[in-house]
Amino acid sequence: MIYLSVFFASIILPLRFAAADSSEPVVYVDPPTVEAQVGQAFNITIGVDYVADLYAWQMVVYFQNDVVNALDAFEGPFLKTAGVAFSFGPIIVNDWNSTHGRVMIGATLCVDQGMTGSGILATIRFGCIGEGVSVLEVSTTSQNSDVFYSYLLSKNLEEMPFQTEGGCIRTAEAFHNVAIIGVTASPTDVYAGQTVCIDVVSINMGTQTESFNVTVSYDSQIIGEETLCSKPSGEVTTLHFTWDTSGVLPGIYCVKGIGLCGPK
Q: Has residue 18 got a pLDDT over 70?
């Protein structure tokens, strides 16, 4: 007998639809919501819509530092399409205060024209360090009278008013999940003493790299066991076992495969 488990997953992709008649530029975090596991790193982008004559910008983003830490940030392509651009930063302070961190990055053009349209200003890379929820706030006001706040400057170096749309990061503890998704035996009708070839297909369905044991048995009798080491999330592995049926009494037997992680 062969057991086959089939797993289905659904993916929801957040989409952002900006208002076509916005009277002010809109600076936004994309994607607006991120769900990740502890230990995972990911990127978010800071974009701008409906800006006219943009010559320079600075973005300051605050986050909850017991949930995520900023790892890096770099300029996006928007200003570069208008000509030579110079970026400054990033300045990353993960312990800005007891609860929040801050990342700052900016850029300016070096040509005699501004940029009009929509595009990506910056990309920020975060790493999840704890469970919880962190708001990503694009700050437009200075904190403690410093110069760290977000702004858009025109070609005349005048600040332009703009709207902001922040983001949210939800993190959860990484989960461990290995599964046997296929067991095949050949031949399936044998005489005692014949050899049966058994293929077992396993998959790491969790979010972390795993080492685990795969055991093949009939009834309560172990046919074989093998250890798989350092299998990344999503990796499928096929193992080959041989069953010598010498001494096995006539009957109908259920052959099964079990994948078992070690203690975490």
A: no
Q: Tell me the pLDDT of the chain averaged across its residues.
A: 85
Query: H or E stretch including 244?
Result: strand 236-244
Q: Cis link prior to 187 (omega < 30° from 0)?
A: yes
Integer-rounded Cα radius of gyration of the chain: 28
Domains of the chain, first to last: 26-172 (2.60.40.680), 178-261 (2.60.40.10)
CA–CA separation, 249 and 50 (whole Å): 78
Q: How far apart are CA 209 and CA 177, in angstroms?
A: 10
Pairing of strands 132-138, 167-172: antiparallel
**What pLDDT, on the 0 to 100 scale, is given for residue 134?**
97
CA distances from 77 to 14, 112, 173 (A): 22, 18, 34
What is the mean predicted confidence (pLDDT) over 131-135? 94
Q: What are the phi and psi torsion angles at 82 (to 5°)?
A: -90, -10
The pairing of beta strand 210-218 with beta strand 255-261: antiparallel
Query: What long-range pairs does 19-22 form, CB within 8 A, spacing at least 24?
Result: 22/49, 22/50, 22/163
Task: Name the token pair of 98.
Answer: 């007891």
Residue pLDDT, tens place only, 216-238: 998 888 999 999 998 888 899 99
Three-state DSSP state, 107: strand
For residue 37, what are the β-bridge partners?
A: 172
Q: What's the number of CA atoms in the CB half-sphere (13 Å) around residue 250?
A: 1
CA angle (257 as vertex; 251, 260 as ends), nearest 5:
145
The torsion angles phi and psi of 189, rounded to 5 degrees, stand at: -115, 115
The span from the CA of 243 to the CA of 261, in Å, is: 24
Give this prediction's pTM: 0.62
At 22 the pLDDT is 54
